[in-house]
Amino acid sequence: MRTILGAVVVALTTLTIAADSPKPYEVSGTGAFPLTDTVSSLWLNGPKQAGRPQPVIMVYYQGASGWHNTHWEVKSEFGKTPAWIRLTSPTAELSIEYGPGGVGSKVHGQSVNLSIANVFLVSPVGDTGVEPTIEPLGLVVFAVPEGANPAIQVLETNPAIKAKVLR
Fold first, then answer.
1. Which of 22, 65, 71, 150 is paired with 91 by a 20 to 30 Å CA distance?
2. Confidence (pTM)
3. Cβ contact 35:61 at 8 Å
4. Mean pLDDT by 10 residues, the chain (167 residues)
């Protein structure tokens, strides 16, 4: 069931732009990962820390069972302002934009203040007939170790965020 979005993860990780010393506002790549039958994630990576790109925005998407098991079209633009990623399916669009220093950043088309939160929950997504809400979940300083999945790492190190995302 997770194979389609799992393939998107592989495709997105290949989009990472190699840069020796990116500016603090630059986006170096992105990632996505399905967590459960109802929850998936999407993030934008920023500058490297300890040799590894770290997320600057993490977004969890929650919908009906199986909503993310579909074909996704991926479009993105990095190296310009704002940097952005969009995943579009027949029933949903997942999107993040990141402006210099976080100014002008958007989650699901809605402006967000990254000095207040850089982790968000968008719910419900998919063909529900209900406009999704964007809930700020907190400000997380990312320190994703080598080999760890950023979406899982945030949940494992932040119990309050995990409780809201996996409810």
1. 150
2. 0.84
3. no
4. 43 36 63 95 85 86 94 89 91 91 89 94 89 95 86 95 95
